[in-house]
């Protein structure tokens, strides 16, 4: 049967944005889940036009040809549009996918939405109801991940010593796949804390590729809370993820203590330095 784009987005949200865990990515199910949803999407495309098929992007070819990720053909207007639109909200505004809408007023359709009722992850409190894209993460362009995964990196996990399925599953979610999300999606809207990030970058105390993981890790453990609902005219600053005062006013819960207790320090090795900078 034909399945709409919003149906498939909701399905992915149910798998990836549940409060208990990320069922689709943080375990052995990543391959089966993504093969399955891609198959469903392709079947839906073929219901419309049986000469079509799901797109396939072998980014190892571009790496081997020394093509920078932001110069990939997929960012041309007749493919998926600009890799970093220069309008203030980074809305994809050219090409065939320009102004692709994110479903609004989605609470009757999905149990998972953001506070504005958009069909997004709860911790993504962006209120703009369109497809967006940016080529920096928290203001940084040259991330630890700023190249496509290579053939050599794929081959490594198929050679002796790396054939454990758990290692391959972890690599498919991380090293071989995750960097592409980080590069082409981006992360912005952190201007209120720009001075903190500037200090962290200056001293080499963070890898920006990990920052985008913090919100969902801390949200799942209750350290970050979200408004239950925000109207479309609620200013973004009033509808942000936040640490409840019950924690921030507790002397036992300093920033470093929260990062320690939550396990975030395992992916952010300089968390103590962050607290020193924030003081």
Short description:
The chain has 279 residues and is mostly helical. Helix content is 37%, strand content 0%.
Question: What does it look like?
Answer:
- The protein has helices at 5-16, 30-48, 59-64, 151-156, 165-173, 178-185, 194-202, 208-220, 245-248, 255-262, 271-278.
- With 279 residues, it is mainly α.
- It folds into three domains: 1-56, no CATH class; 57-100 and 135-186, no CATH class; 196-267, no CATH class.
| Stretches with pLDDT under 50, minimum 5 residues | none
Helicity range: 25-40%
Q: Give the amount of beta strand, in percent.
A: under 5%
- Residue-averaged pLDDT: 84
CA radius of gyration: 20 Å
Amino-to-carboxy terminus distance:
57 Å
Overall morphology: globular
Output the helix-strand order: HHHHHHHHHHH
Q: What would you call the structural class?
A: mainly alpha
For the biggest sheet, the summary is: none
Count of individual domains = 3
Quantity of strands, as a count? 0
- Continuous helix count: 11
Organism: Octactis speculum
Protein name: Tyrosinase copper-binding domain-containing protein
